[in-house]
Automatic annotation (TrEMBL):
It comes from the Bacteria. This is ABC transporter permease subunit. Its main location: membrane. It is a multi-pass membrane protein. InterPro entries: MetI-like, MetI-like_sf. It is found in: Cell inner membrane; Cell membrane. The chain crosses the membrane at residues 12-32, 60-80, 101-122, 134-153, 178-200, 229-249. One of its GO terms (biological process) is transmembrane transport.
Length: 259
């Protein structure tokens, strides 16, 4: 019995190290002043890149703020609109047809999907600006939220809604006191997921933004193409920070039911 526990503990540590190593490597590389082959470790370290990150003229910091604004707006709009739309589709007579259409954005790659939509974005003067990028991200995140919420509107939820209406509750009261509390955990999951969809989106941002909307993801690839690995590591460290934070809250709140 003890040996079995030790084996499980060993493999758990190996798995944890496997996930931690890439993150640790990026942090070390972002702090390295010089790290050339065949050196096993950096010759020296510097915090200059991190200190200049928060300067007033830092393009990387501006990209970080821009990505946060875009991702939060996309997640907020997609979560609320997807929650409401999924309810309308749940009781629609052509529900199966509309649900199949919800999967369409995920059949194509984001680059092809953006190329198909690019003409309409030009006609609407949305190409090359933040509004167009946000709308483009919503066109991917919104169907995802509809699909995610589709399982919430089952027979139990419908019976509760009918009970509230029988007791004299209106639509606003039903949403405020019944649907939103019941779906609280699912709403948070949807917000986290749609945030990450927007946060990591590259292909659609590149085409719709035509290179003018420099999100953090675009900065990472820009530094890699320039062979600027130290700045690429810094940008990548910033890129993986929100997923780590969301993973922490996801574990603490959704699984342990506490904040």
């Amino acid at each position: 019995m003890t040996s079995t526990v030790n084996i499980k503990s060993f493999w758990a540590k190996v798995l944890a190290a496997t996930f931690i190593f890439p993150v640790a490597y990026l942090l070390v590389l972002s702090l390295a002043e010089s790290w050339l082959f065949p050196e096993l470790f950096p010759v020296s370290f510097t915090a200059e890149r991190w200190s200049t990150l928060f300067s007033t003229n830092s393009e990387l910091f501006n990209s970080l703020l821009l990505s946060l604004v875009v991702a939060v707006m996309v997640a907020f709009i997609s979560t609320l609109s997807g929650f409401y739309t999924s309810k309308q589709l749940a009781y629609h007579r052509k529900r199966k047809l509309w649900m199949r259409l919800s999967y369409f954005p995920f059949v194509l790659s984001p680059v092809i999907y953006a190329a198909v939509l690019y003409y309409y974005f030009i006609e609407l003067n949305l190409a090359g600006n933040i509004g167009g990028v946000i709308l483009g991200h919503i066109l991917i995140a919104y169907p995802y939220s509809v699909i995610l919420f589709s399982g919430f509107w089952g027979n139990r939820t419908q019976r509760i809604e009918q009970l509230v209406q029988t007791l004299g509750g209106n639509r606003w009261q039903t949403y405020k006191h019944v649907f939103l509390p019941l779906a609280q955990g699912l709403l948070l999951i949807c917000f986290f997921q749609t945030f990450l969809i927007s946060w990591f989106e590259y292909g659609l941002t590149t085409i719709i933004g035509v290179g003018k909307v420099q999100t953090l993801t675009l900065k990472v690839f820009q530094y890699i193409n320039e062979a600027n690995f130290y700045n690429a590591a810094l940008a990548s460290s910033l890129l993986i920070l929100p997923p780590i934070i969301l993973l922490y809250f996801n574990k603490k709140y959704l699984f342990q039911k506490r904040w």
